[in-house]
Design brief:
The protein has 15 helices and 14 strands. By secondary structure, the protein is α/β, with parallel strands linked by helices. The structure holds pyridoxal-5'-phosphate.
């Protein structure tokens, strides 16, 4: 029989659990109305259930010229003033320079997939957290890369021992390590590593790099929703103290930062003491950009630059965003404290868009999800549990939710 697809693409089929669950929730809402709890989508919704498009972002967008909206970006690497704005947004408050290269990408997804593509050969292995964003798997499969997990938690904190063992094993097997660390505000658990946990991770990685190159892919998609505000960014200074044989790729995204999910803009921020490798990495990333997406949305880059470089716009953006950071904290407070009250087990949570209920057995997880759906509660199945997107559920619907779920278990 004739097959049109090549061997690696034949049989590929995208099953996106988030969108599937969201469609089911939408259908239920059409029938049952407001009683439906839709905790599926990882985008911000306000207390009236309306999608949040920040005024302080999308009103200034109106002032951006038609020409800017129509034009190609001025460079495949991304507009220079955009790259400068990303640098300042991430590192501007630090009292040291962070020597890096920046490449604009279509969202965090572009930054992550381009990194996987260029770092690992087909057949090699990437490390990801045991609870992690689903598309990491899709991206790895796309490039013929296999995945292995490091266990996220033991006794309510980060499982450093398993992290060390998992990375050591991969280093031993392939002489190189690429590890994804989604911090702060981890999706799907809402965990943020403690500074001392990061110190231990980085000390270990420095040691491990004696045996081969180590690339840390720090996915910071939710960085701007940390309760610590911009002070979390002090963490980046630690990357200045990594050995020559370590590279960090920060995957930055404007999707959540600006509520600009559809604008598809983000960046790879690459840090390494090894200047030759840094330059080669930059070249390879620009090449991949040209061959896969070509250039990034010009007016979205202009929008980010505009907000970040105008004090008045920046202040109003920060104020408006802070309202949602506080709202997320209040929502989390309701759900997480009620989980504790009723004994509904969740993964260690600190902050961010999501909380995950622990259900390790796959059959039990699927069964519970179905029961919840029959009771108009829509969540997303993730590795080891069910994800509740508190970013999209108003406080009034979170009150009593833990108890309802516990009773349905
Ligand atoms: N990383 C994580 C953990 C995410 O949850 C997301 C979005 O949902 C992304 C990265 C990237 O999103 P985007 O490509 O829209 O920037």
């Amino acid at each position: 029989m004739n097959v049109f697809l090549n061997n690696s693409s034949n049989g590929k089929k995208m099953v996106d659990k988030v969108f599937k669950a969201a469609v089911a929730a939408k259908e239920a809402k059409a029938i049952h109305g407001d009683i439906v709890v839709d905790a599926t989508l990882g985008t911000l919704f306000d207390e009236d259930g309306k999608f949040v498009a920040l005024e302080s972002v999308w009103t200034p967008y109106e002032e951006i010229s038609k020409v800017s909206k129509a034009k190609y970006a001025s460079s495949i690497q991304g507009n220079p003033d955009f790259r400068k704005a990303v640098y300042n947004w991430l590192f501007g408050d630090l009292n040291e320079i962070v020597d890096c290269e920046i490449i604009a990408t279509p969202g965090g997804a572009g930054a992550i997939s381009s990194t996987i593509k260029n770092v690992l050969n087909p057949g090699e292995t990437i490390l990801k957290p045991s609870q992690g964003w689903g598309p990491y798997k899709t991206m790895a499969h796309e490039f013929g890369v296999t995945l292995t997990d490091y266990n996220m938690f033991v006794d309510g904190h980060f499982d450093l021992i398993d992290f060390q063992n998992s990375l050591s094993k991969v280093m031993k097997d392939q002489g190189k390590v690429l590890v994804i660390i989604n911090d702060p505000c981890h999706n799907p658990t809402g965990y943020t590593l403690k500074p001392e946990e990061w110190d231990q991770i980085l000390a270990f990685i420095n040691e491990l790099s004696a045996y081969g190159p180590v690339i840390i892919l720090n996915d910071i998609a939710y960085i701007d929703y940390s309760n610590q505000g911009s002070s979390w960014k002090q963490h980046f200074l630690k990357y200045n103290h990594l050995n020559e044989n370590v590279m960090v790729v920060i995957a930055f995204s404007c999707s959540k930062t600006l509520t600009a999910y559809g604008a598809r803009v983000g960046a790879q921020v690459i840090i390494s003491k090894n200047k030759e490798q840094l330059s080669d990495f930059l070249d390879a990333s620009i090449y991949s950009a040209r061959s896969i997406w070509s250039t990034v949305n010009n007016s979205a880059m202009d929008l980010f630059t505009k907000i970040m470089s105008d004090d008045k716009l920046l202040q109003s953006y920060l104020t408006e965003k802070q309202y949602y950071v506080d709202l997320l904290r209040d929502r989390a407070q309701i759900f997480v404290s009620e989980c504790a009250e009723v004994g509904l087990e969740i993964y260690p949570f600190k902050e961010g868009f999501f909380v995950t209920i622990k259900v390790q057995n796959n059959q039990e997880k699927e069964a519970l999800n179905l029961t919840l759906q029959q009771n108009n509660i829509f969540t997303v199945e993730v590795d080891g549990g069910l994800r509740i997107a508190i970013c999209s559920v108003p406080k009034r619907k979170l009150v009593g939710l833990a108890k309802r779920i516990k009773e349905l278990m």
